[in-house]
Amino acid sequence: MKRLDTTQPGFATGFDALLSSARDTTQRVDGAVAAIIAEVRARGDAALLELTARFDRWTPAGAAALRVSAEEIAAARQACRPELLDALDLAARRIERFHAAQMPQDLVLPEDGLTLGLRWGAVDAAGLYVPGGKAAYPSSVLMNAIPARVAGVERVVMVVPTPDGEVAPLVLAAAERAGVTEIWRVGGAQAVAALAWGTDSIMPVDKIVGPGNAYVAEAKRQVFGRVGIDSIAGPSEVVVLADAVQDPARVAMDLLAQAEHDEAAQSILITDSAALADRVAEAVEAALRTLPREAIARASWEAHGAILLVRDWDEGVRLCDRLAPEHLEVLVAEPEAIFARIRHAGAAFLGEWCPEAVGDYVAGPNHVLPTGRTARFASGLSVFDFLKRTTWVSATEAGLHRVGPAAVTLAEAEGLGAHARSIAMRLGQ
Ligand SMILES: NC(=O)c1ccc[n+]([C@@H]2O[C@H](COP(=O)([O-])OP(=O)(O)OC[C@H]3O[C@@H](n4cnc5c(N)ncnc54)[C@H](O)[C@@H]3O)[C@@H](O)[C@H]2O)c1
Ligand SMILES: N[C@H](CO)Cc1c[nH]c[nH+]1
Ligand SMILES: [Zn+2]
């Protein structure tokens, strides 16, 4: 963990190092990913079977075995404890409500004898990547699939790797609850390639969304253009802004809740209290020893964690905006006032009663969020990722007479005769 103090001379260099720390490993796997995509394009299902055997230690009995059947989904649901299904349902209902409230209105604007419109429509087919290499994420199934269904996507195709052939029952139950229409037991770059290019078994989709490891992220980057993608999600991050009165043990656990995701995750505390900085550092050490994922969380905290001591919240807000974190917790008196001054964060959690993990599961907003400082220009997954706009125009004869001559003038200036005449001949010229 790095400890930096804005009053000390080395601060600027230390902070720049933090901003540019190489946590994203996608560049290093681009060659391997290109080779996998080429294999899937050339050999389709046969390549999927071989790559699944190689990377997920499982040899499916033919391509049909890659698809999860309706019977398997029903059996998975049966295998889940009722309290798990209840928790899933509570989360799903809250996520549905929040995403339904995002649905935009079409636009119709009459103007000068023309009518201008904008119509929203869903993509036909969406591919959802649900990570499954190191851990199973039923919550990510809900977060990917619900916005797609709420947006009106008809074909919602989920791909999930199944190390040793096993898919967690709760992942399948979540897919059923969220309205996923197809589930394929395939992961990594090969799954992304199959969704983009199709194979004999898997029909291609129009857009691929969802987080994954470096191979998945790089594969999404490489198939972009053939299909749409959401953002490229890298390792998780949190910035916690905390003042002197916060409980160090709670702050420490909030930092470790991101660190335990990945050795490359990054957790940063910004505080105006040297005493809190000391106590949180100690509390992280103590808490680490109690965590089931201690090794991952410790690696993340030691390599990428940081505590930044600031003079005041003006400085704290400026540093936070430069970090543009995926998650932001604001644990200060009047958190809304500080949050109003922050411009760049994927998702914010305000006040001591709202730890980020609430947002991972049950709050309602999406947990698939921009990482790696991309919150400067990108947003979390939403219904908008599954929608596109078509604009339309209709005109009366009088309307064309009003605006047409200017269009003829501009078309002639561009030397585009057919453009000019297509309008002029309607104007009787
Ligand atoms: N942003 C979010 O909302 C969110 C949610 C959940 C998980 N995550 C992140 O997603 C990531 C999940 O990673 P994961 O590894 O557990 O699962 P994953 O499903 O992303 O990756 C597993 C797949 O990676 C491929 N792979 C592994 N080693 C390979 C190699 N040497 N060559 C080629 N392919 C290889 C295999 O095909 C395997 O099936 C983590 O970084 C986690 O933090 C993010
Ligand atoms: N915090 C992760 C990235 O937003 C999402 C997640 C899933 N399960 C638990 N957490
Ligand atoms: Zn999380």
TrEMBL record:
The active site is at 326 (proton acceptor), 327 (proton acceptor). Gene3D superfamilies: 1.20.5.1300, Nitrogenase molybdenum iron protein domain (3.40.50.1980). GO terms for molecular function: histidinol dehydrogenase activity. InterPro entries: Ald_DH/histidinol_DH, Histidinol_DH_CS, Histidinol_DH_monofunct, Hstdl_DH. Pathway: Amino-acid biosynthesis; L-histidine biosynthesis; L-histidine from 5-phospho-alpha-D-ribose 1-diphosphate: step 9/9. Keywords: Amino-acid biosynthesis, Histidine biosynthesis, Metal-binding, NAD, Oxidoreductase, Zinc. Substrate binds at residues 236, 258, 261, 327, 360, 414, 419. Its cofactor is Zn(2+). Zn(2+) binds at residues 258, 261, 360, 419. Catalyzes the sequential NAD-dependent oxidations of L-histidinol to L-histidinaldehyde and then to L-histidine. Belongs to the histidinol dehydrogenase family. This is Histidinol dehydrogenase. It comes from Roseomonas elaeocarpi.
